[in-house]
Amino acid sequence: VPGGPSPSLCILADSREISSGPGVLSCLRAVHGLRVQICSLGSSDYIVSNRLAVDRLLQSELQSPGNRNRLGQRLQRLQGIFERICVVVETDRVRPGETSRFSQRTQYYDGVLSALVQAGIRILFSSCQEETAALLKDLALLEHRKDAAIQVPTEPEGHRRDILNFYLSIPNLSYAAALNLCHSFGSVTAVANSSVPALAAGARLSRARAEDLHRFLRHRFEPPALP
Amino acid sequence: PVTAGSIVVPYGHVIANEKWRGSEVAQRLQGKVRLIFEDGLGLVDFHLSNRTCILLISEADLVAGDEFKRRLVRFRNASSLRGIVIVEKTQISDQYYFGVQKFVVLELGMVLLPVANQGEASQLIIQLVSFCVREQTRPGVANPFVLRPRSRPAEPALLRALQRIPALGSAKALLLLQRFGSVQSLCNAGSSELQQVLGQSAAQQVYSF
């Protein structure tokens, strides 16, 4: 298909999206022909490339001040893990006969948008789950063009599964980076003995994040620091 | 004429393109922010700070065709300022939004925010300005979404990581860390060294891992 996604285009989706965004998942697979791997990501709803995480937020979540702290913590955590973050603000589904509860745009909502812009988080707006899927596909294509797409097998088995679990426990290492480590290095020992540039290349990480990983692997354990 | 962003915005002020004088947006902004009208801003509608500006796309612009796209591309090529595009997303222009978003956000890499009318646009601009001001006075502090670097001790994380290795619980993981110190030296330990800390079968499992 000219201009269509290549068959290798892959998106990781958090397992919670099975219940909260079934339309997104089925549309990604059926309409756009993407490979969608369901994982327990925990951090974000979707991982679109080696460096980009996407969180799907309902407009009502952004409208209610009660969510502010939780959202802030979640997005801050994501920034610790990923180079780039995008939120897709999806319009809530309105049941037939129900008028939209949020016809009045609040100052609070504008404040949240301003804060997101200022924090350098990319914002996309979607009117439904199908549109969200189309946006995810566009993002994946864009990242693919920039040579950041996830291009390693996403389902390691047996012993590799154990090794993946070990990598996933490293602080601020994304699921995509952990998969890359599994794929690029023969063993944990090879990772532990690697230089910063080798880690950056193998895990497809930025220099700064590769340095963090390097530091963690060589950190000397100090028992008193334990709570 | 394109101004490439040598505008100096006085602290807490907004500089508006002369063409907005008397408009609904300008009227609503007046009194809330200090508004200065200036001629010759070229493509930009409002300057919020020395590095942030706004391009406003009306419902009519959207319906009229691709002229606004040329304007955005000219801005993008000519200016290093951060451009925020505010677009009037109404019942009439709604159908164009998806395509516009793809163009502005994904292709041009700019920020796009939809509003329903000029009143909402002014409200949004006020919030954006207040964030610009806060950012200038106390960078990052007031923003709940900006990551504040803080250093956490690595010890609990190290202990958790080791427990992911089959055959290791918290007690054995702690023993290993006390003996070998880091993940790297643990990886390079021989199986006989491991056996000094662990039983034979656990040492073998860790070694083969």
Biggest sheet layout of chain A = 6 strands, mixed
| SS element count, helices of chain B | 10
**DSSP helix fraction of chain B:** 40-55%
Q: How are the strands of the biggest sheet of chain A laid out side by side?
A: 2-1-3-4-5-6
Give me the count of strands of chain A.
Answer: 6
- Mean pLDDT, all residues of chain B: 86
CATH class of the largest domain in chain B: Alpha Beta
Largest sheet of chain B: 6 strands, mixed
**Radius of gyration of chain A, taken over Cα atoms and rounded to an integer in Å:** 19 Å
The portion of residues forming beta strands of chain B comes to: 5-15%
Briefly characterize the structure.
The complex is a heterodimer of chains A (227) and B (209). Chain A is 47% helix and 14% strand.
Characterization of this structure:
The complex is a heterodimer of chains A (227) and B (209). Residues 1-5 of chain A have low confidence and may be disordered. A six-stranded mixed sheet of chain A has the order 2-1-3-4-5-6, sandwiched between helices. In chain A, helix 2 crosses helix 6 (129-145) and helix 10 (196-203) packs across helix 11 (207-218). Chain A is an alpha/beta fold and 227 residues long. Chain A is globular. Chain A contains eleven helices and six strands. Chain A has helices spanning 17-20, 22-30, 59-63, 68-81, 107-118, 129-145, 159-168, 175-184, 188-192, 196-203, 207-218, and strands at residues 10-14, 35-39, 46-47, 52-58, 84-90, 122-126. Chain B folds into two domains: 13-137, Rossmann fold (3-Layer(aba) Sandwich), CATH 3.40.50.10130; 154-208, Orthogonal Bundle (DNA polymerase, domain 1). The model of chain B has no long low-confidence stretch (mean pLDDT 86). Chain B contains ten helices and six strands; from the N terminus they run βαβββααβαβαααααα. The chains are: A alpha/beta (227), B alpha/beta (209). Chains A and B meet through helix 4, helix 5, strand 6, helix 6 and helix 7 of A and helix 4, strand 6, helix 5, helix 6 and helix 7 of B.
